[in-house]
User: Which sequence fits this backbone?
């Protein structure tokens, strides 16, 4: 597998993070708690933060998690 030379960036705020992973910003807390989205807050009042490289890994994991079920959905159409 070819290695990619990615510049590490910190995304700030639910809107920016969820835009990156194509999810609803209103669901960020659930995504972190239930889906393992790698985002964090420094305190209850601070904004969400996430590293782009962690989000790439999370998206690949989500793809792999749901890709195994894809043929079942294709057969129902």
Assistant:
């Amino acid at each position: 597998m070819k290695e990619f030379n990615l510049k590490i960036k910190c995304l700030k705020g639910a809107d920016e993070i969820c835009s990156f992973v194509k999810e609803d910003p209103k669901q960020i807390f659930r995504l972190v708690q239930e889906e393992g989205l790698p985002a964090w807050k420094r305190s209850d009042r601070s904004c969400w933060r996430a590293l782009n490289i962690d989000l790439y890994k999370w998206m690949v994991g989500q793809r792999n998690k749901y890709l195994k079920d894809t043929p079942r959905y294709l057969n129902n159409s």
About this structure: The beta strands are 10-12, 49-51. The chain has a mean pLDDT of 89. Residues 52-67 form the longest helix (16 residues).
